[in-house]
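Backbone-to-sequence.
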């Protein structure tokens, strides 16, 4: 129970890595605010882990208004802001550069990079205002930020941006007792990967020394470590969890 007494918010918590993270954090003793733009999906996550451990919240991370409402709701419900913030909401809109529409670029930017910025800024401010110590913000980037797959210029650029944002936030928030780290997952078996063409999946698996997709729980356990005091000297890190895929 490394997270006993802690309160966490997880975005993108209605699916994939976010949902698995809610389960692992709740098993670790934390109360969890299960945040997703799809309220029904968030409620399904709450149902799976139990209402004693979690509440569902509709949050669009791309909207300042929605994120600041989430801060207010968290404080109203728990009398304090969460000390653990997991930014897992993310989308892909793949396509080659010459064919990529402005909308597909903007949509990916708004959720993946601006969403991470808004959540980080608004929840860090709440932690500072409420004198929450031992804060931990964990941003889900991607190995694609490093391997730069053709067809993913929008996605890769936002995920590289998430690493820079993480490093700077770690430097700015250290004095407030808030650590900020990023995780770079490889190919993880979630609905996001279901839409990847078979040929690309096979190529990725061949490049992965472990020879299989990762399980969402394998990311969630690293998140749990970063959320807990066991990682108290880890700050500004970008940790690859890829089975060795480069
Ligand atoms: P997923 O199963 O598609 O889950 C993402 C969740 O985020 C969905 O419930 C989605 O709702 C929600 N979401 C989308 N836009 C949102 C918004 N504006 N506000 C709040 N929630 C929003 O994806 P995943 O595989 O778990 O991915 C989680 C994170 O890991 C993402 O940041 C992704 O980029 C990253 N990642 C994943 C992999 C992988 O292989 N799966 C690899 C590297 C990095 P809807 O379904 O309604 O859109």
């Amino acid at each position: 129970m490394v997270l006993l007494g802690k309160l966490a918010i997880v975005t993108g918590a209605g699916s994939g890595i976010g949902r698995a993270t809610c389960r692992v954090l709740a098993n670790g003793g934390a109360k969890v605010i299960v945040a997703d733009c799809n309220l029904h999906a968030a409620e399904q996550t709450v149902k799976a882990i139990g209402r004693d451990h979690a509440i569902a919240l509709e949050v669009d991370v791309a909207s300042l208004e929605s994120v600041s409402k989430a801060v207010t709701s968290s404080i109203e419900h728990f009398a304090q802001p969460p000390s653990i913030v997991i930014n897992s909401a993310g989308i892909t809109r793949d396509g080659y550069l010459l064919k990529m529409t402005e909308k597909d670029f903007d949509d990916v930017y708004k959720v993946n990079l601006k969403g991470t910025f808004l959540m980080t800024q608004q929840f860090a401010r709440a932690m500072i205002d409420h004198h929450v110590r031992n804060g931990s913000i964990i941003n889900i980037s991607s190995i694609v930020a490093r391997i730069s797959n053709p067809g993913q210029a929008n996605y890769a650029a936002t995920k590289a941006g998430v690493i820079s944002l993480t490093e700077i936030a770690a430097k700015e928030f250290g004095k407030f007792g808030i650590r900020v780290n990023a995780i770079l997952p490889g190919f993880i078996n979630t609905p996001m990967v279901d839409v990847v063409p078979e040929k690309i999946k096979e190529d990725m698996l061949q490049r992965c020394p472990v020879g299989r997709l990762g399980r969402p729980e394998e990311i969630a356990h690293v998140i749990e470590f970063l959320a807990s005091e066991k990682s108290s000297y880890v700050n500004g890190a970008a940790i690859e969890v890829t089975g060795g895929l480069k």
